[in-house]
Amino acid sequence: PSLHIVLGLEVERSEEVFLSKKARVLTSKCSGCGACARVCPYGAMEMGPDGLPRPIWYLCEGCGACAMVCPSEAIELRAAKTGELVEGRTRYGWLMVSARLEVGEHNSGLLVSKVRVKAHELATDIGADLLLVDGAPGIGCPVVSSLVGADAALVVFEPTPESLRGALRVLEVAKHFGLRTASVMNKADISDFAEKARAVVEREGAPVLAEVPFDRHVVDALAEARPVVEAFPGSGASSALLELAAKVEELLAS
User: What is the CATH number of domain 20-80?
Assistant: First the structure.
């Protein structure tokens, strides 16, 4: 979420995005029976002191359960602003497309898809040779959406059992889409599990192109809102990332 800050994005255009829905109570029709508050699986509906239900907007997932059980048809789902789609140039001159979420909203595969489609349109317009998608962390729908239409996937993982399991699941999805795969091990020196993790990932067809060490310079660079390779070019993390960039370039050229 801080990539646009580190790269110094200057927003040139923005567009509001409405991808979620929130419950709204029509008080003129509500009988105050409380069925909606009892059925809500997210605890997003509470009974107010006036005896009428009140939606808690930041908990509401728009599932519609409250509207389904309301005997008075006093609840409707209305489109809610998810955030903004933004585009512009970084301080390095690259085009960048990103999204800003509203408070309480969360990422989704549909939002990532909108960002990816917009980025592809811009890349096509300028005849770009490369479109780099920075996928969301984890293994959920946003990750799947970020892989659609890609030629290759670079999986970032750490030397822990949990991270390895996640990496293997992402690699499984990448294989489903027929993508070339490679990997990079982050914080490679924090655990003795690193050697085993490397072997497992490479056995799945994702060679480890670089091992980035745990490096306090990364935190210091983020505090300065600059990439570590610019802020601390002599650091261990910078050396590993430059090595990674060169190998990724070779991979894409092959």
Answer: 3.30.70.20
